[in-house]
Amino acid sequence: MYEKFYGFKEKPFSVTPDTKFFFPSEKHKEALDSLIYTIKERKGFAVVTGEIGSGKTTVWHTLLRHLDGETKLALITNTHLTPKQMIMAVLEDLEIPFKENWTKVKLLFALNNYLLEQASLGCNVVLVIDEAQNLNSSALEEVRMLSNLETEKEKLIQIILMGQPELRHKLALAGLTQLRQRIVVYYHLYPLSKEETKDYIAHRLKICGANGNAVFGDSALEKIYSYCEGVPRKINIVCDRALLTGFINERLKIESDIIDEVIKEIEDIIISNQGFPAESKNLPSAQAGASSGKPEKNLEVSAQETARYATAEGTPEYSQKANPIILRDSGKLSKNTINQPKKDSGVVERYYLKKLDWDANLSKEPLEYIKGYPEGLLNNGG
């Protein structure tokens, strides 16, 4: 939407884990190198933790680019599993035939045979478990048992646990001492520093074709760091909204006043979301705020609000998975191009189109938008 105005080839601040935008900060580079070392040297066990939005998912997506064709990967993202279900998920991801009525012992036997076969072929097998903080103690003990699959010289399977800081507390439990002793690499992703935040923003702008143009002023960068506290996902959300606001107001340079406006919008959305279910991991909850004494700031809901305004063709830009904004029929656009929101989809707000010169057929009256929450939008850890 605003790409042409700023001369970008694409949006620079998407919240999806696009490895093209991987920013090799000292922290993220060390985390990536640690994982590569664990896999290539067949060390067996690695743990990477970080706050929501710290870049964990981007790190392991980038890791996939460094794996050769002789490395087989199993990825588990649903961690609310029983020990047997987890083994079945590993077998399924590695395309190992099995039957659901098999006992856990028989399932492990099938996995062990597969691992021995891959080792004889010179292949390496990697298991990545995302959102591992959700694993209960029984499932974590099962993970430890998987790490026992080995030959005299090396581990047959390399296991990487990715999770939020709660994972550290869980691994510290007395009952998981044996698992803790098997962890060879442990890395925690801390937020970016102020200088890294500035470099991170410049890095993403450069990839999208900013050609060295200073899109964000110094005062804007200061406010972005102060509000986002160096968390990459929060930075992406604030910068994306700031560029949209700048585009609407025909501002080629983003200064602190625009950041102030964006922050106020985000805070208003956070307040309006207080009534949503607390069990959604991207919404504030009593559990999430227990450690700090205050609820987590939630920016995820507004991550891709980039379809407030009609496109050049006069049709709404809307993707149910990527965009929480749904354009309601204003009577001026064809109904078959509009996704009708559910009655309970959220708070209605009005926005005005400024200097509509894209399409003479578009009305200059305010278009009515619904802040909806399509299924799947609130699913993303980090």
Describe this structure in words.
It is a single chain. This protein is α/β, with parallel strands linked by helices and 382 residues long. Helix content is 36%, strand content 11%. α2 crosses α3 and α11 packs across α12.
Report the sheet with the most strands, covering strand number, pairing sense and barrel closure: 5 strands, parallel
Taken from the alpha-carbon principal axes, the silhouette is elongated
The helix fraction, in percent, is 25-40%
Question: How many E-type strands?
Answer: 8
The chain-level structural class is alpha/beta
Residue runs with pLDDT of under 50 for 5 or more positions: 276-382
Helices, by number, come to 12
Question: What is the fold-level CATH name, i.e. the topology of the largest domain?
Answer: Rossmann fold
* The CATH fourth-level homologous superfamily of the largest domain: P-loop containing nucleotide triphosphate hydrolases
